[in-house]
Each structure stands twice: as structure tokens, then as C-alpha cells.
Amino acid sequence: MRFRLTPRETSFYDMFSASADNIVTGSKLLMELLGAESSARAEIAERMRAAEHAGDDATHAIFHQLNSSFITPFDREDIYNLASSLDDIMDFMEEAVDLVVLYNVEELPKGVEQQIEVLARAAELTAEAMPHLRTMENLTEYWIEVNRLENQADQIHRKLLAHLFNGKYDAIEVLKLKQIVDVLEEAADAFEHVANTVETIAVKES
To answer: In which family does this protein belong, per the annotation (predicted)?
Structure first.
């Protein structure tokens, strides 16, 4: 860590942690969706929408703090990128749940549960990592593991696409299910973007 002669605004750390904790809430709602009856999905989607709105509020709070702070804990661009990437994760998870409800999907294809399990694990790791931004210590394993999880998510996504195009589903159903699994893949990518941003920050601050 570089020695600093100037004070730093520390509330960013708490806000990043709050944003990441909210993502864990979203990942648990995704898990809940897997085992839910069709009749219960609309209520889960409503709770996910509320979590997504909470995520938006957390992101706006970070941006407001960024715009009003003279001293920041690390580069302003990195703060913006980290907040935006955390927000993207929540947006993608909420979109996936919403699509399941809007498309009235009766049964999700085999393999979606693996996608969601990867997202849930990435969410836990991200929430655990955010407090370490204060010291920039014990973060290397975090971004290595999230990158590994994203590679795993890519493999699951490709297998899901192969399954969807094997002729079992009609064309309209394929379009619906493909959009859902694609959005879940985008969520996995967004977790990697967060991890890569954290790595960038850690390198700059070392």
C-alpha cells in the first residue's frame, strides 16, 4: 500500500459492501425461483424487482458521493466502473426472473440450475471481497476464482444452447429460453467485470 498524506472518503467502502450484499439477496431469489411453482413466480419477481430498485438506490448513492467528494479512496473512474458493474449484475438477474414470468415458462431447461449456482457462488465471493477494498489485502484469490467461475459459466451456457437447439423444443420456446439463459450468462460476465475492476484497483494501489 502507498503511504498517503491526505485523508480519504471511506463511506464508499460501506456502499460497495451494501451493493454486493444486495446482489447476494438477488442470487437467493434466483435460487428460490428454481424450486417455485409457476403460481409463486410472480411474487418472487416482485421481490426481485424491489431488490433491483434497492441496487439502483445504492448505485446512485455511490455516484452522488463520488460527485460531492474532493478526496476519493481510489481513482474516480474505477469507482464509477465498480459501481456500474455491480449494478449491471443486479439488472441482469432481475431481467432473467422477469422474463421467466412474462414468458410464462412452465419448466426451465436442465442446466439453468447450474448457471444459477455459479451466480450464487460468485455473489458470495463478491460480497466477501468488498470489505477488503479498505486494505487491498486478500483479494487475489477472489478475482482468480470469479474468473474461473465465469469460464465455468461459459461452458454451461454453451451446453444449454446445444440442448435448446437439439429439436426437443419448438421455435418459439427456443427463443424464449435462449433469451433467459443468455441474460444469466451476461450476469456471469458482469461478475467477471467486477472482479477485473477490483484487480485493476488493487494493482494501482499496490
So the answer is: Belongs to the UPF0111 family.
144 half-sphere exposure, CB direction, 13 A CA radius = 4
Do 193 and 184 form a contact (C-beta atoms < 8 A)? no
Distance from CA of residue 181 to its chain's centroid?
Answer: 15
Please write the tens of the pLDDT for every residue from 165-189: 998 899 999 999 999 999 999 999 9
Q: Which range (28-32, 81-85, 105-109, 119-123) has the least confidence?
A: 105-109
Angstrom CA distances, 36 to 13, 40, 42, 93, 170, stand at 35, 6, 10, 16, 24
Contacts of 48 (CB under 8 A, 6+ apart): 26, 29, 30, 93, 94, 97, 98
Distance CA 22, CA 55 (A): 7
Grid coordinates belonging to 7: 485523508
pLDDT band for position 196 (cuts 50, 70, 90): very high
Q: Which amino acid is at 10?
A: T
Query: Of 181, 177, 175, whose CA–CA distance to 157 is shortest?
Result: 181
Burial of 37 per CB tally in 10 Å (0-12, 13-18, 19+): exposed
Cell of 189: 460476465
